[in-house]
User: Which sequence fits this backbone?
């Protein structure tokens, strides 16, 4: 595998991993196969369509399906999602997958920003405080996450109790 994959052992017994974007173009098939062979069954990409094209990942969703992996994409244009409500709905989907024991790999471009923030938000929904989740991810990666103070502030602003989630989510999404 060309791209480094980091299993976050401290979060849900290694159920989650994070990595920079996979090698694209003619290396994509091999990268996805290796992700599957490492025991992950779901790829969560936070890349925009423009980034997917730039990195040769236009076929990532199809390649994942061909290899038997689920693929979810929630494009984040800048440092944080444009819609907190849409992010909370997306987190509820991730939470459902986690509860059915899916092993999820998160990626953006570098793994330091968007993917670490979204994984921390999921960990928050699982009862792990954001600071602890950031610490676990940072320890696994070998460098400090999130990438920017804005991302840390955004995660803290979306860190909510279950009662608050009921008020935020549209009916039928919890």
Assistant:
């Amino acid at each position: 595998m060309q791209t480094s994959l980091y299993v976050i052992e401290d979060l849900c017994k290694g159920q989650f991993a994070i990595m920079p974007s996979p090698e694209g173009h003619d290396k994509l098939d091999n990268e996805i196969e290796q992700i599957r062979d490492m025991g992950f069954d779901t790829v969560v990409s936070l890349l925009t369509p423009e980034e997917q094209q730039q990195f040769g990942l236009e076929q990532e969703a199809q390649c994942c399906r061909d290899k038997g992996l689920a693929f979810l994409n929630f494009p984040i244009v800048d440092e944080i999602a444009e819609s907190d409500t849409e992010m909370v709905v997306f987190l509820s989907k991730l939470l459902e997958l986690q509860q059915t024991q899916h092993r999820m790999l998160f990626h953006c471009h570098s793994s330091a920003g968007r993917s670490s923030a979204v994984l921390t938000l999921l960990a928050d929904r699982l009862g792990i405080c954001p600071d602890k989740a950031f610490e676990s991810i940072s320890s696994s990666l070998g460098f400090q996450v999130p990438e920017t103070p804005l991302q840390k502030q955004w995660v803290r602003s979306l860190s909510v109790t279950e009662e608050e989630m009921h008020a935020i989510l549209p009916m039928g999404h919890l």
Residues 84-99 form the longest helix (16 residues). The first strand starts at residue 6 and ends at 7. The domain at 6-168 is CATH 3.90.190.10 (Protein-Tyrosine Phosphatase; Chain A). The radius of gyration is 15 Å.
